[in-house]
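Question thread 4412

I'm putting together a teaching handout and wanted feedback from people who do this every day. The idea is simple: show students a protein as raw sequence, then show them the structure tokens that encode its fold, then repeat with a second protein so they can compare. Below is the first pair exactly as I plan to print it.
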Amino acid sequence: MISSASPAGPTAFVLGGGGVLGAAEVGMLDALLEAGCRPDLVVGTSVGAINGAAVAANPTAEAIGLLTELWSDLGRSDVFAGGPAKQLATVVQHGYLHSSVPLRRMLRAHLAATFEELPVRFQCVAASIERAAARWFDQGPLVDAVLASCAVPALLPPVKIDDEHYVDGGLIDSTPVGRAVALGARTVYVLHVGRIERPLRPGRWPWEAGLVAFEIARRRGFADAMASLPEGVTVHVLPVGDDSGAPLLGLRYRSASGVRRRIEQARRATTEYLERAGTGVPTGHPYGPTGPPAGASEAGGANSAGGANSAGGADNAAGIAEAAGTTEASGISEPARSAGSNRSAGSNGSGGSGGTR
């Protein structure tokens, strides 16, 4: 078991995107908290922003119970209500399938009102349409920021904050390991939905080819961030526990079937991983108990892309907002701001897998 005192340096939970598959993150959170691991920082993208905001508000079994119920009730809620005719009418009139009003209402009922109310530091990212850049939120109204982070294009409308419109943060940084490192984390637990473990193959149909191309872009940033880990940082990529692999496109995004099974599978797999890892990644297994996904490079080893090499020190480890072309990453230290001007790390990916320096 990992005790709360065993990780070296500040501990971060990084929660990636993945739609309804994000239920797996609840099981991972359950295992982490049960093992006594408490975060000093939580960073979330898309659906990971919802899960992350909940655990940052209350890093206890109570939050796990709340998230389990929310996920289990998804199919019965009105968050994605409406039949094909209504959806078609909404698309024709507005350009998206669902109103964000029900989701906003649900978030207001279960999340804190502001970032400042959270006992654990929390940040989430959304993509600015006007600037084609990231904006990291860490202060002010919480629900608007979380809603912006999970506003999947065409599924939900963009969220207007100040004078800009924002969509799903997964377009910018789907698994923001680099952001957590830039904010000072030295032990990072990556909670994901399983896509980074699925081998990619050429698509047979045009839409499959498009999905594969998008997935390559998603994974590239994660792999770059893992290759650029500075000295003293350990990353644990937690297992999903589902050998069937996560689909690249979840068409059944309104279905709650299998949610509790997915949560339990991830909980068991993560519990086993933590018991085997102890206070660090097992020797010889920087990618966790199952090894790297097919095609992943040994980004976390003694690769010259990281460590003391000028290409991968602390100044290069992260997807700061400047790395995506913006200077609006509020609440970050000046050294980390200057680091973000380098574009070689962690902006939009989901692929590689774990490592330690």
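The second pair follows. I'd like the answer to focus on this one:
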Amino acid sequence: MKRLFPLACAAPLALLSMPAQAQQAPGQAFAVEAQPAMPAKTTRTGKHINRIIDMWLKGQPVYYTQIPGGGYEEGKKLAATKADYITYEMEHGPLDFKELRDFMRGLVDGGPTRTGHRTPAVIVTLPIQGTADAVRANAWMIQQALAAGVHGILLCNAESPEAAQIMIQASRYPFAPVVSGLSQGFRGNGSQQFAAEIWGVTQNEYLKLAEPWPLNPDGELIFGVKIENPRADANVESTVRTPGLAFAEWGPGDHGFYLVGAPKPRVPGSAPEGYPASMLAVRARVLAATKANGLRFLNACNERDVIDQLKEGVMICTGGDTPAADKGRAYTKRTDPF
């Protein structure tokens, strides 16, 4: 009987013996025939699939609601939300991509929205520590979420520009337009089928539209970063320059753990305490970096402060179904139904 072991090992041994410069790093750019140029402006007319984009193009802030997981029935119920988008929370909620797909189907079956969009936009958070190594090792989570037909990803604890770059590269197809500062995308074939059904487009249309906006004016995907620990703070000015990002937030909950310590019990009915100077300094730094690079800033809003937040430049607020959001919409004279 012939021994096959040496032959089976030959390929990996040959790869290991190749010069370093001859081996291709994951995500490294290489030539693709007929790789399209990035459009200078949108080539489309009518509503976007992603309602967030339509609101921002009108200069309107957006408001979101959040769900810690949920399936088909939860999707049908939330199809009627007044919120512009839904944060589907899997950083600390269950990591269940089957349930996420069921949720997206529920949104479609319960739609369309008051604004005439097929569904509210859905942005997913994932249990990935925002370091380059962690994002590279867990890029499959980003790709599974996108394959479910969601409209974007918020990278938690985004500690470096390299981590943000890998998130964007994992979300783009290899034939996407070349972008300075990004290596070639590595999202795979097959990821378009279910997502196209959710968006109500053909698979070929999805392959073109599944691009980060505003980097690609024809794109329908939104990507953001949470700057929520001291390591992320140190790199924030570099991180928010990553091509493909659209928004950022400062993560006061996690920041408080690092800068203040364990939360103190609050007397029921008492007013919340203001942030200490260390926290306010972090918020100011993230806000300034975000504004300087043309990104939108996310912050929690309530009825007392929503107008002040909007005046300061906040373009994403919590509480999409609350009176605070209605107050904000009235202040900015939103004309779209809500």
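Top answer:
Good format. For the second protein you could add a caption like this: The first strand starts at residue 62 and ends at 67. The chain is about 40% helix and 10% strand.
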